[in-house]
Design goal:
Two copies of one chain form a homodimer. With about 120 residues, chain A is mainly alpha-helical. The first copy, chain A, has six helices and three strands. In chain A, strand 2 and strand 3 form a beta hairpin. The structure holds a DNA duplex (30 and 30 nucleotides).
Chain lengths: ~120, ~120
DNA sequence: AGGACATGTCACCGTATGGTGACATGCCGA
DNA sequence: TCGGCATGTCACCATACGGTGACATGTCCT
């Protein structure tokens, strides 16, 4: 298994990876740049290997693309999969906020059968 | 560590948990109902204990609330944290889609310094 | 009371995951 | 050519996580 959406969700689950995306959203960076950002004890200090594994996860999820330039690797963020996941799943639930709120109201009122349930 | 947003992301990372939220979005269910849904080999067949652990993760993330009714437990979805996370993070990146696309165009064109980088 | 049922808890297991250090590759410049 | 730097890869470790079976609690019904 593990569809593309799955890879995106898994990739987004880690705060370090989300921070990487935040950085890359401001500007493309080389792997070394990213390592500096996280190695300076900013986020607890992760080594190069760790950062690269995170970037690799993001890359396999399609969230990060890169381009080789000599011995450097420029990493780019690709927000399209995020938007796709948001469209296909998140907004579905957010759209149900009203209904959800209704359920929660039933919850607060302690109804026996919270739905019409017919 | 592990802020509320973190818990939400972690909770959303698992496809089974997202499926649980999908079910609960349609209608509140008891734990037993959920177990039946996943135990009938529908999603590979997860036992009661496994389902309850998932529901517990969702509950600790604030995505599922519940109400006791006798020996039953009615589980309710709460989409508010999803919306919050979406607002604070996802939409930020989706908003940058244009800029992101610009970067990617630079990538495709093989520019040396993809940004103005000044 | 007593049994059946729904739920909750516990110890445990295999694997995935985050993280590391050591080493290999490859490109640039002297 | 040769050294140095940025990157990539490998083996390895500790822990978190998904999942299970066995057992405990509590509630409903007879």
């Amino acid at each position: 298994m593990s569809s593309e959406a799955d890879l995106v969700w898994k990739a987004l689950a880690d705060p370090t990876r989300r921070a990487i995306l935040d950085l890359l959203a401001k500007a493309p960076l080389t792997t070394g740049d990213l390592c500096e950002h996280f190695g300076l004890a900013r986020h607890g200090g992760i080594g190069r290997t760790g950062v690269m594994k995170h970037v690799d996860v993001l890359h396999r999820a399609g969230l990060v693309l890169f381009r080789r330039e000599g011995r450097q690797r420029w990493n780019y963020v690709n927000a399209v999969p995020i938007q796709r996941v948001c469209d296909r799943w998140v907004s579905g639930h957010v759209r149900d906020l009203a209904r959800s709120a209704n359920h929660l109201k039933d919850l607060a009122e302690g109804k026996r059968r919270p739905l019409g349930s017919g």
